[in-house]
UniProtKB/TrEMBL annotation:
<dbReference type="Pfam" id="PF00560">
    <property type="entry name" value="LRR_1"/>
</dbReference>
<feature type="domain" description="Leucine-rich repeat-containing N-terminal plant-type">
    <location>
        <begin position="28"/>
        <end position="65"/>
    </location>
</feature>
<keyword id="KW-0732">Signal</keyword>
<dbReference type="Pfam" id="PF13855">
    <property type="entry name" value="LRR_8"/>
</dbReference>
<keyword id="KW-0961">Cell wall biogenesis/degradation</keyword>
<keyword id="KW-0325">Glycoprotein</keyword>
<dbReference type="InterPro" id="IPR013210">
    <property type="entry name" value="LRR_N_plant-typ"/>
</dbReference>
<keyword id="KW-0134">Cell wall</keyword>
<keyword id="KW-0379">Hydroxylation</keyword>
<protein>
    <recommendedName>
        <fullName>Cell wall hydroxyproline-rich glycoprotein</fullName>
    </recommendedName>
</protein>
<dbReference type="InterPro" id="IPR001611">
    <property type="entry name" value="Leu-rich_rpt"/>
</dbReference>
<dbReference type="InterPro" id="IPR051582">
    <property type="entry name" value="LRR_extensin-like_regulator"/>
</dbReference>
<dbReference type="InterPro" id="IPR032675">
    <property type="entry name" value="LRR_dom_sf"/>
</dbReference>
<dbReference type="Pfam" id="PF08263">
    <property type="entry name" value="LRRNT_2"/>
</dbReference>
<keyword id="KW-0433">Leucine-rich repeat</keyword>
<dbReference type="GO" id="GO:0071555">
    <property type="term" value="P:cell wall organization"/>
</dbReference>
<keyword id="KW-0677">Repeat</keyword>
Amino acid sequence: MQVVVCGLVVGSATLPPHHLGLLLQSLNSAYAALQSWKSAITDDPLKVLDTWVGSDVCAYKGVFCADPQDDEPGPVVVGIDLNHANLQGTLVKEISVLTDMSLLHLNSNRFSGTLPDTFRDLISLQELDLSNNHFSGPFPTVTLYIPNLMYLDLRFNSFSGPIPEDVFNKKLDAIFLNNNQFDSQIPQNLGNSPASVINLANNKLSGNIPSSFGLMSSKVKEILFLNNQLTGCIPQGVGLFTEMQVLDVSYNSLMGHLPDTISCLNQIEVLNLAHNKLSGQVPELVCSLKSLANLTVAYNFFSGLSQDCAKLFFRNVGFDFSLNCIPGRDMQRPQPECSVIPGGGLSCLRIPSPQPLICGSLAETLEANLSPSSP
């Protein structure tokens, strides 16, 4: 006897009966789950779901199957990718029966509502992309209980309220929460995160950048906090990010002097500090960073640049220092605006360090001078 499963012909002589039974049970569950989800989709202008008919779920458009990694019979549903399908509808709890699924990509659709609590049962899920949809309500905390999740993308939705602390306790490699309506402060345990990319841009976050900032993994590549309502100083620990490539804190209300440690960002390519209230000198070595491709300090209150900054143009590095308070330079603020330093000359914590700054010993220097409660 032969059985057709997901387009494959399986001989009953080579597949033990109990394995065949488990396989059919798994695929029947997947079929029921996907049909339940299909019934919750109210608009499918691209006719993506026209293929979602019959019991052969592995033939459904956007559904991917493979043999399981253990000794269980296969194939099983291991991924769903409906990016740019323009589907309108909601997510249903039945999706959680797809426990072999490692990725769920729903970018650029019109899904709304909230995430079912049963999503915590997606024990194999590693990538969850819900970006560019119409989800709303508080942060979907069920995502924090998906045990093996490593990539979380919630950007371009309408989530609101505070960001839970546990986001930064979870072993996520990428956190995309930008372009929502999250408010309150960035949790103080930010430094616990092992992520290589954190994007919190275009929200309504306020308060200081947590002092634990520099305690994050030295493997972090990108941090984007732009277009929020952040205040206070840029923490000294910024210099510990030896593999940082992009740091963008533009369009906030950050004040005080830049920490000298920012000169230790040896791999930085894009450094955007524009549209803040920063003052003092741009640290001398910043303009000498070898990987720098774009440096933007415009619309601040800086009063001086080093000679190395003038050489950036010869290195074909994008450099914008307009609308500051730098004497003898064109396109600066009117003098009356420069006579009053925003924040009354906020005194940021300065860590005594050898001159010249020794980046290799920075971690020990900061550890000796900072405690978790330091401002």
